[in-house]
Structure formats: structure tokens, C-alpha cells
Amino acid sequence: MKEILTFGRYYKKKIKKRVKKIPLGISGFTCPNIDGTVAKGGCSFCENESFSPNLAKNSKKFFLNPDSKENPILQKQLLEVQFQYNATRDRYKSLGYEKFLAYFQAFTNTYAPLDTLKALYEKALIQKDCIGLSIGTRSDSVNEDILNYLKDLDKNYDIWVEYGIQSIFDETLKKINRGHDSKNIETWIKKTKDKGLKVCGHIIFGLPDENQEMMLKTVEKSIEWGIDSIKFHPLYVVKNTMLAVEYKKGEFKPISKELYIDTLVKAIKMLPKDMFVQRVTAGIDDETLLAPNWCKNKNALLKEIREALRKEGYIY
Fold this sequence. Notes:
The chain is α/β, with parallel strands linked by helices. 40% of the residues lie in helices and 18% in strands. Helix 10 packs across helix 11 (298-311). The protein has a single domain, classed as TIM Barrel (Alpha-Beta Barrel), CATH 3.20.20. The longest helix is centred in the first third of the chain and has 21 residues, at 74-94. Strand 4, helix 5 (144-153) and strand 5 (158-166) form a beta-alpha-beta unit. The radius of gyration is 19 Å and the shape is globular.
């Protein structure tokens, strides 16, 4: 049996300690696909104020962008980093984890002035047991200055940039209202790698009108571009999204569980031995999930995925 390299196994081999990512969601961050810079309405699968009255009520809140001249909520943001990190760290420590990466997860976490990014990233890095950062972002929301700064941080910490690849097909990216093309993704992944930084790529299976061949082509190209790690997600439909409207009209049919698992197994078999898998599925267990229903029970799905991989000689 071949053991799949996971996040935990990667760091256990690298530093001989149990490492966990601590997710952070910081006020004031948004996305160029939500604020109208590159598109309007956000990605089709993302809840946004165009479809959510509750979000619309908050539309007058302060949001950053790279050209913001000031940041009146910086102190609040710094406190959020400290509080969220330490509250989660305490819980994970009780479960036996020893070191942590601060994971800037929600929205686009390079979409702000560099001074703000420096303050927030460095606040996270001085927290106890923090060994690095994982920064979730879009390929159209980084620049040379940000990458050079992260390169300097990488001399003393483990720095990861997580890009939403989703698909390498421009027709798909247009359908989901992504706001950039696949060339943009390729360009910035390669530039990030040229700086010596580590890249995690997010890929979605079940995007509109994609067949298995297309999904696996996205995996193949992502490997060619040099990503170090990968996350797999099924596309599921939640309320207050453009995708929900399409689903209710019968214009979108979610991927089946059987096809998702089969595609995932084939994708994992394609990965180089030194590339590790950070996620094999995702889901949501609340009333916002519209479809597919099999995304509701993540633990049951993980069991089926493990069984399918085991049949192919893999241990996840």
C-alpha cells in the first residue's frame, strides 16, 4: 500500500512535530470580484451581497483594496489575528498539535495595501508556536512587491501561497464569473515559484459543463505549473449565489458522488510522489446547502473516499 503524503505527514517528516493550520478571517478583506474591480457579483458559487439581504445590510462597512490610502480598522484587525490564533491554538494544543501555520483563509488575503499585509502577517508570526503563514488569495491579486516581501519572510518561516486555480479552461472560468483567465493563473504561480515560495493549488471538480477529462486536465496542468501541494473540492450549491439561481432553473446539475470519487482517485494517482494533498473534499452541514446532498456528511464521504483509494493501493 502507498501512503498518500498529507499535510500532517509532510510536516511530521520535515520537522518531526505535529503541525496544524489555524484559519483566520479578518475584517475589512474582500475580493476584486466582489467589489467590482475585475467583475461584479463574485464567483457564481460564492455568497455575496447581490443575492444576500444580510450581506447587503453590511455593504457600508469598510473594505480594503490595494489602493486604500488608510486603514482605520488596522488595530481591530491586529486584535482579531491575535484572538483567533490563540483561541484556536489552545484547542489544537489540547489535541496534541505542537506547531502551527497561521492560515489567512477568508476572502482574498493579499488584496490590501502592503503596509497592512506586513502588519497582519508579522502579527501572526510572533504568536506562540507559529512557524509560518498560509495565505489564501487569487492570482490577479498579487504583485512583485508582495512576492518579494514574502520571499524575505520565507528565509525564517514557512510561507505558503494558496491560489484558487479551480479550472484551467477559460470557458469554465467565464461561466463561473471568475474575473481572470487561466494564463493569469499560470503566470503568477510560476512567478511565485520563481521566488522560491511554496504554492498550494485549489481545484474544483464538478464545475459547469466540465467532464472528467477536463477536470483531470486541470490537475495535469497544475502539476506542470509546479504547485507543491493541492486541495480538491466538489462544487456544491449554497443559497444566495448565482449558482443557486442556475440550479433552481435546472441550468446546473451538480456532480454525482460516484463521479467525484472516481475523478479524485484518478487525480491522486497522477500526483508526483513529493506533492502532498491538503484536502480531498469539502462540504457544509447546514440549511444553506441546496445540493448535492452527499456534501452534507463530510465524515461519511471521507470514509468512502478512503475505501476507494484503498482499493487502488493508497492509504489516505
